[in-house]
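Aim 2 progress update. The chain analyzed this quarter is reproduced below.
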Amino acid sequence: MIFVLCVIIGLMAVPAVSAEEEHAENSGTEDSPASAGIEYIVSPWVENSSDTEDSISPLRSTQYITQGQTITHYVGVGSGINYLEVDLNWGDSSDSLTLSISTPSGSKLGPYRDNYDGSVNGRIRLNIDPSQGYVEQGTWQFKVYGESVSGTEDYTFNVAFH
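Predicted structure tokens:
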């Protein structure tokens, strides 16, 4: 009788150990969402004069683009950057450019068009804020696409670090 009771208790104890091992394996995979990249909040640019004084502009570029052409700008982002301010300005609202962004970990943002901020003025100006912490370090890609361009359109492209 004691032998049967020990076997029953032993069988009941085995699944509890297996459940703990499974939990341990699952908790080891909880790091994967964090390593997949940072979530970003992209919003139309809002002037904040106190932040403008503290900004650093690593990229200021003037380019020419035609219908169907894509020009990629690469920007290296270091540590301790709170958010990015991106400004694509071509000024001619009769032409249409788009802006697509790739983070260093490969996440895609956009494409963004002229009307993203609610007005059509030949300009895409936005802020990219991480949902937590700092902006991801590494090389960011900003792709400007000539969606609808008559002839050749010139534009300026700026990225500021805050």
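Strands lie at 40-44, 56-66, 70-77, 84-89, 96-102, 108-112, 123-130, 138-148, 152-161. The chain has a mean pLDDT of 79. These observations will guide the mutagenesis experiments scheduled for the next reporting period.
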